[in-house]
Write a structure and sequence with these properties.
alpha/beta; Endonuclease, Chain A; single chain; about 525 residues; 20 helices; globular; 7-stranded mixed β-sheet
Length: about 525
Amino acid sequence: MKTEKNRKKLTYKGPRPIRYFLTTMVVVSALLFIQLLLFFLLSFSVAVSADNSKYYGAALVVEYLISAAVMLSVINRKCNIAYKLAWAVPILLFPGFGALLYLIFRSSSIHRMAKIRIFANKELFERAKGPSVEEVFPKDHPFARIPAYLSSVGFSTYRNTDALYLSSGEEFHQKLLSELSKAREFIFMEFFIIHEGVMWNDILEILREKAKEGVCIRVLYDGMGSVKTLPGNYTNKLKEAGIDAKIFQPFVPVISSIQNNRDHRKIVVIDGKVGFTGGINLSDEYINVYDRFGHWKDAGILIKGEAVRELTCLFLEMWYTNHKADEHPERFLKLEPQPAEGWIIPYADSPLFETDYIKSVYLEMINGARNYIYITTPYLVPGDDILAALCRAAHAGVDVRLITPLHGDKRTVHMISRSYYRELLTAGVRIFEYTPGFIHSKNLICDDRVCSVGTANLDYRSLYLHYECGVLAVDMPAVQEVKEDFLSTERKCEEILLKDMKSPNALCRLFISLMRFIEPLI
């Protein structure tokens, strides 16, 4: 087995010290603090020097006018209300300073260019339009609103596509190696994190072999997600092996909105016939080669058939985000039917657009549930609308269950997640914490009819800020497989009961309240 061979070659010694200090939270927090400090000092110095100036009153008027204009811009933005409120406070409390801070976070030439490129390439990479959703999906289906909605925003509903649920990183890894070894034409890979180690060594060995055979290979990884796991010149190393590689928005030490808009998708497309997605990154903790937070529980999904074409389009759109497409994608856009029952709908989301597609799908599933809805998520920061929907469903007698990790990988986020427990438990939602370690899968299962397996967490970053994707399976065996995996995982969890909840002290409550308030900004 390749894994065993590569395991012998590698002794994992943990992150290098310099990379430890380059974690996303440390870097962004440090730069944010420096920028806030500089702006405060600048504002203070201007105010002091203006005390003896006849222009002080005029400067103050201009400052308030700018703040008022920015505040109107915030109010009229089509975005989450929590985001507007989080910005309104600093703008109103610190006129001028708050407005300038908002403008810096909002203005990003890279962000604007990404939007321009996606729209410029949209016609070239137009997704194949099969039959209309009315032709392939029954209107009287309990969840007919979901494919109808996704169809209205450009995502097709496919038949002739088979799906296999992969209930662990280890299963995902072995299946991925098997399918990669069969590639004859092209391999597309898009991941948030790539980390040199056992898992990536296995994959890279096959990619090198396939490149020698003339297979077109493209690898795209996120600049922030991989900032501490790969050297900055790693794309050159891949290109030397015949692998075309790009970094999505390379990390630069400037605080701007682009630092929050990361490519959190995980997509593999092989010859236009086979596609993968799910929560699994290419790093050794995902296959439990080493123990990071205890046993790492994750999941993915493999699809074969016509719906793979949708994943191909999603990859190509991201591949050409930073520049105009220089090819016609027709040779990559296969339409290979695979006899299967049910329907498959690959879908995605982007911070460049005003509508939050994934959040809308999640809400439709929660609101449409009549018997049960089961959710696994590593982060539980749902926002008011999803929180209300979960509580409303539980009050209506729907069996609502959540599985979250006992051991969080981010302490502050874990604290915020647990702060929602009391309200959910009071409404009748059942919550289970995965005791063997960390659960990273992002699954929703509803009424034995529909499931979603994808990359989006139940938190603000995934639902509003990141590029995300997923696959909906309707009336397919994969739905039951996801349900069985949930129930099997639940048996390894500890159920959280309302009577066992302890109230945090006043200082902790204040900290959590503050973090919940500013969470949309970070």
